[in-house]
Amino acid sequence: MSVAGRLFPCVASPVMTTPALSTARLSLEPYTPGDEEDFVALFQDVRVSRWMGDGPCTEAEDRALFGRIFSKVYARDLFDVWAVRHEGRFVGH
């Protein structure tokens, strides 16, 4: 059972997936492998990365982090992680 299922058994289904969410301006969608370059560019921007975790990381570390979204977070259904898009263009995490 997923972490969410153990913490909130009344609302969590046994097989959960990250949903896509939309507003009038933005969409939040599960990452795809094709988002890697945008993800790494965002995390390599020191104006952004200084507010995330322990601050800026190496490009290799950011690529490894992106890989863990698929190998751990999505695969084990740990929590939801989204790519934020505006008019189909990647704008955030």
Low-confidence stretches: 1-15
The Rg value, from CA coordinates, equals 14 Å
Order of helices and strands: HEEHHHEE
User: Strand order within the widest sheet?
Assistant: 1-2-3-4
How many β-strands, per DSSP? 4
What count of helical segments does DSSP give?
Answer: 4
Distance between the termini: 26 Å
Q: Report helical residue fraction.
A: 25-40%
Shape estimate:
globular
Q: Please give the largest β-sheet.
A: 4 strands, antiparallel
Proportion of strand residues = 15-25%
Overall mean pLDDT? 85
Structural class comes to alpha+beta
Q: Can you describe what's shown?
A:
With 93 residues, the chain is of the alpha+beta class. The chain has a domain of 55 residues. Helix content is 37%, strand content 16%. The chain has 4 helices and 4 strands, in the order αββαααββ. It has a 4-stranded antiparallel β-sheet with strand order 1-2-3-4, covered by helices on one side. A hairpin with a 2-residue loop joins strand 3 and strand 4. Helix 2 crosses helix 4. The chain is globular and about 35 Å long. It starts with a helix and ends with a strand. The N terminus is likely disordered.
